[in-house]
Amino acid sequence: MNFASDTAAPAHPKVLEQLAAANSGPAVSYGADGWTLQAEAMLSDLFEFNLRASFVSSGTASNALALSLLCPPTGGIICHEQAHINCDERGAPEFFSHGARLMPLTGLHGRIKAQVLQQKLQETDESFVHATPPKALSISNLTESGCCYTPEQTTSLAQMAKTAGLGVHMDGARLVNAMAFLKARPADLTCKAGVDVLSLGFTKAGAMGAEAVILFGSNADMFDDFEARRKRAGHMPPKQRFVAAQVVALLQNNLWLELAEHANTMAQKLRDGLLEQGICILHPVEGNEVFARLSADQTSQLRDGGAAFYSWPDGSARLVTNWSTKHSEISSALALL
Amino acid sequence: MNFASDTAAPAHPKVLEQLAAANSGPAVSYGADGWTLQAEAMLSDLFEFNLRASFVSSGTASNALALSLLCPPTGGIICHEQAHINCDERGAPEFFSHGARLMPLTGLHGRIKAQVLQQKLQETDESFVHATPPKALSISNLTESGCCYTPEQTTSLAQMAKTAGLGVHMDGARLVNAMAFLKARPADLTCKAGVDVLSLGFTKAGAMGAEAVILFGSNADMFDDFEARRKRAGHMPPKQRFVAAQVVALLQNNLWLELAEHANTMAQKLRDGLLEQGICILHPVEGNEVFARLSADQTSQLRDGGAAFYSWPDGSARLVTNWSTKHSEISSALALL
Amino acid sequence: MNFASDTAAPAHPKVLEQLAAANSGPAVSYGADGWTLQAEAMLSDLFEFNLRASFVSSGTASNALALSLLCPPTGGIICHEQAHINCDERGAPEFFSHGARLMPLTGLHGRIKAQVLQQKLQETDESFVHATPPKALSISNLTESGCCYTPEQTTSLAQMAKTAGLGVHMDGARLVNAMAFLKARPADLTCKAGVDVLSLGFTKAGAMGAEAVILFGSNADMFDDFEARRKRAGHMPPKQRFVAAQVVALLQNNLWLELAEHANTMAQKLRDGLLEQGICILHPVEGNEVFARLSADQTSQLRDGGAAFYSWPDGSARLVTNWSTKHSEISSALALL
Amino acid sequence: MNFASDTAAPAHPKVLEQLAAANSGPAVSYGADGWTLQAEAMLSDLFEFNLRASFVSSGTASNALALSLLCPPTGGIICHEQAHINCDERGAPEFFSHGARLMPLTGLHGRIKAQVLQQKLQETDESFVHATPPKALSISNLTESGCCYTPEQTTSLAQMAKTAGLGVHMDGARLVNAMAFLKARPADLTCKAGVDVLSLGFTKAGAMGAEAVILFGSNADMFDDFEARRKRAGHMPPKQRFVAAQVVALLQNNLWLELAEHANTMAQKLRDGLLEQGICILHPVEGNEVFARLSADQTSQLRDGGAAFYSWPDGSARLVTNWSTKHSEISSALALL
């Protein structure tokens, strides 16, 4: 009964199978191998869009490298105050951008509120050289509260940002969970909604460690710059085929969407069981995360019974399901209460 | 017949076996898992020394993170002019150290010459605030020319450096090849010779992507700082067990040493065959690399026959063997000439 | 009638006299001149404390260099949300610290509220590598609202910070105005209250461009590091005597304190006149700044009549007096309303 | 008899006069004052070219800020191995550029040799992501050996650089000495020869501390970026009129050229006197610097007699004249030998 994080989960067996398949004979180093080409082509198909993709093994790197393309050292990055880039990446955005500033905004359920963004943008006076102006907007989908941005919501925020001259980044560490919940086409959630650069997660979806950074449309002009930044950050693995192969494994037959649907279903089952016991759920369950307000007794019952999870800064218990969560784990956890 | 690089090689089957073994059930994220603990303990045993170890997936990151501990932004890093950190890491040392300067020195076969180091250190006037003083020495073993530093050679350079107040780093991307060639104990090549921080390579030895950064003795006091730097550089993988498990696989039963002995043997066989044909070998073959002066015809014969290798800046052909190189590949390559 | 800023004021005639006096014959470059030594000695006397002082020509540099000593790239700097370092220095703290994060707190009249600081410090979990921990506290005295921290208030905040392992910085761009208002000894406001590094302003006090960075007590151990950082930031002027001479001019016979008393008196006179006209004053006038809530008509009357001032983000008019403000300017301004 | 440096000299009286003239009444802060506008207009006239100019108080800042416009963090800056940016600025180029690498080349008398530059550019393979490619060329005129680049020499180097996609910077800390020696128009030495960004020195020419950074032609598009970088580096002085006024003082009636001619004449007189005594002069005296090979006895004779100068790394004595050097100082120094 591990609900600590989807990063605590093992990799899906198909990922290991693909790694084994990729492990035959020599391959060109540093990204010129066939698996990398295949993974990029599969992403082009998936997003139905002109794009360039690059593969790294960590989500923090994926986010920070992407942001460093969109925001100069003298600019700022607007994000939600609970965003992973703001709370959980130890200043990686500042490091990779050479000192850009995060500009956290508020909003329910981890979503940046449109009016709050509008106000922030209106306050900005580019001609005032003394203050840091925002230069990029970063949207997390799923949010840190496990909620989705619909295509309309993303479009609305992205348009505001673009009108003000900002680039638009999406932290899609759990985008596939949003795809599964909204039954939306990937393009509608991202490039067609105005996203310039997407950090797309595969690790939480079932990989060992694989993330894609995707430059949509004309943003692909920055690809060479991206590769240079990736190299000097130590994120261009010499045996890159083993990162790309994981992506291939998860994209084949849309396996990752199937896995995300399962994780989402498990979260909904958990939510329903908790609600039945009169436990308050803080955020709509639109992905694979349940935030429950547990009493101290309930917390102990769960932990003593062997359920792992984190206490969240807002006072709730965060319960994360994943591709490997079993129906029986949900039932057992609920039975502990 | 792939002699392009040891990073073009696949991973050893035992590495995949260990990955599969590590892929059962949940594990704590970000390095508090059992495989990480086991890998660190195995390194303590191997080096017979008090140490802390951290695991990353790229050699560039391993080097640059290590150097950022030893050299402040206002200092310099002495290295050989052909060092990987100087020629092949796209400014990663500068990035991670926030602008420290590389100070390349000359020396035969990729080894820093003691007199040249001595002179560089003597020229330094710490009281002259206008010039960048060296603060760290980085030694590559194997060198970029495929040669070893003996324990005595490392000790000699490290003592000079320490006397001048510098920290000592070793880039051990191919240290196991040096261990195999010199039949030396790991400690004698590193901590006992004065190395403070070691970047120890497993990727070229047979992993998919795994490197250890080892802080010896009192340098372990910098471990928390190292972890903070690693995290914000995106080099603390959430599913870290899959990096550590590769290290475990290669250290078990000293598998990596066996593989390095094989790679070294293959290089010697290749060298001997080339010498028999009257081809000049530029550097002593003390590891798994052969630098051969080929005519244009010979180059074409090899390439047309299917042998992959790089032309090196010094005009030679660099031929790299690895754990998977077969006797028949050597014979076939030699037969092409 | 210029109330735009104390940086809009000219330099005091004594400053020019001292520059002329310093302008005779050659002097050693880069800070080894007699005026620099004299200025440092005068500061030692003034603060009755063991210290090292260094002189730069800009307040932004003075703050950012000081903070870079106290906060590593992986840490955070706690300050008031209205602090100059947060609002008006275009990311200089991030630049000089290589990406440390500003952590703005709230509090009335620009003062950090003790409870808010306490809570921020208690929330910090140093063992959680993923979040940026605060490593320095920066206090502005005067605050951005023109108010003082008493020695007791500074001591209280500094003790909390030190208990939590933070270094303490004071932005004293207008410290002399606080000295004048509180009739407090400089040491009581700074080193004896727990300040480690002080950015002490002379430009707003009557210089052309001169600021001191003062390292108190054992912090002087960082002096060499400071000088190296200052040099590579281009803030070690070759003809440094001309910066130090300005400091000498203002410290002689406590001229700067006399000038600050005058500026403060002018502010009080302005405040009194505005209050008589029923105009609301937003913050206690404890230095040389008056924040008045003016109607649109009143704003126009003043501006049309030739009074220069800035509209402040809080909706008030900020009216700043300085050493050169004349009684008649205050009367004329008040007469416009 | 001070030949230590032209930065050891006092400021010219006209500079103080202009400072006094600028010191009347209030002026807008941070560069929107009349003196700044006047100084920029005078530079436009002088260079007969469309340009934007910004003023800082230090040559190190002027160089490093300029280079940060031309070279990204992932690129390299080609310069002469003796260049001030390479030897005397404590890593300022690395700091301001966020880690770009200096690429020092050789050449007689401090001049980059055209063939050496050509070879360096030809070696560069932009498609090889692992190595740092040069992105800017920095030329020092005067060189560190006190020699000039003629317009033809600069044009030749700049064309090579531009053909390879590099931006061209000139460190003109002593450009006015080159103007005086070559009797060349400023434009012919800079913008018309292919210089994109010029760091133009006034401090050594007779100011207290004033340097201009000039963006020629379409490079002016980077002016806003430059101002943002300048601000966050603490190099936008609040009372900027006092920097600009120094430039105005020196440009009026071409005073600085007259002063440079004097300094050059003094250097030639010193050279002639030394040659008469059979002393070897290492570099052509094309500005205000004489590099003399003195015996230990001669060195003592000069120093004991009260002449100040530095021993240079090449073993010579560097003797620098300046605007205030008197004929009698030269005679007295020569008489000591």
Q: Quick gist of this model?
A:
Chain A is of the alpha/beta class and 337 residues long. Chain A folds into 2 domains: 13-254, Type I PLP-dependent aspartate aminotransferase-like (Major domain) (Aspartate Aminotransferase, domain 2), CATH 3.40.640; 255-336, Aspartate Aminotransferase, domain 1 (Alpha-Beta Complex), CATH 3.90.1150. The first copy, chain A, has helices spanning 13-22, 34-47, 59-70, 84-87, 92-97, 114-123, 151-163, 175-182, 186-189, 223-232, 241-251, 255-276, 296-304, 327-336, and strands at residues 51-56, 76-80, 101-105, 134-140, 167-172, 197-201, 211-216, 280-281, 289-293, 310-311, 317-320.
Describe this structure in words.
The structure is a homotetramer of 337-residue chains. Chain A is of the alpha/beta class. Chain A has two domains: 242 residues, Type I PLP-dependent aspartate aminotransferase-like (Major domain) (Aspartate Aminotransferase, domain 2), CATH 3.40.640; 82 residues, Aspartate Aminotransferase, domain 1 (Alpha-Beta Complex), CATH 3.90.1150. In chain A, 42% of the residues lie in helices and 16% in strands. Chain A is built from 14 helices and eleven strands. The two termini of chain A are 14 Å apart. Chains in contact: A-B, A-C, A-D, B-C, B-D, C-D. The interface between A and D is medium-sized, with 15 and 15 residues.
